Amino acid sequence: MTKVIFTDAAGAQREIDARDQLSLMQVAKNAGIAMEGACEGCMACSTCHVIVDKAWTGKLKPPSEAEQDMLDLTYGVTAQSRLGCQIVVTPELDGLTVRVPAETRNMMD
Ligand code: FES
């Protein structure tokens, strides 16, 4: 198990013991965190938008071009924005901290 920390829009933090090889979106949904993940990880919706803590941005694999293209279309994007469905939990990510934005954009609507 790998510990990941989610901060919601109100600033409340939750530490989750995440199963390795699950995506961050799957971890959030399994834990009841408010993340829609409408396309179930097909990179078609952007409702899994997370903002990665600055301390972690350099430790993640960079986003693919397709992920970047999807992020370009969503709300409130920052330099630390990622799609939660594209971050796979591994032991190296123990302590990963992300913020779930208040508003997301479902590109499938
Ligand atoms: S779950 Fe739809 S883009 Fe990630």
Description:
This protein has helices at residues 24-30, 54-57, 65-71, and strands at residues 2-7, 13-18, 49-52, 81-83, 96-99. Helices cover 17% and strands 21% of the residues. It has one domain (2-99): Beta-grasp domain (Ubiquitin-like (UB roll), Roll). The protein has a five-stranded mixed β-sheet with strand order 2-1-5-3-4. β1 and β2 (13-18) form a beta hairpin. Bound molecules: FE2/S2 (inorganic) cluster. FE2/S2 (inorganic) cluster binds at residues 25, 37-39, 41, 43-48, 83, 85.
Secondary structure topology:
Layout: E1 2-7, E2 13-18, H1 24-30, E3 49-52, H2 54-57, H3 65-71, E4 81-83, E5 96-99
Parallel strand pairs: 1-5
Antiparallel strand pairs: 1-2, 3-4, 3-5
The protein binds FE2/S2 (inorganic) cluster.
FE2/S2 (inorganic) cluster binds at residues 25, 37-39, 41, 43-48, 83, 85.
Q: Structural class of the secondary elements? A: alpha+beta
Shape: globular
Q: CATH architecture, please?
A: Roll
Termini separation (Å)?
35 Å
In short:
The protein has helices at residues 24-30, 54-57, 65-71; strands at residues 2-7, 13-18, 49-52, 81-83, 96-99. The protein is an alpha+beta fold.
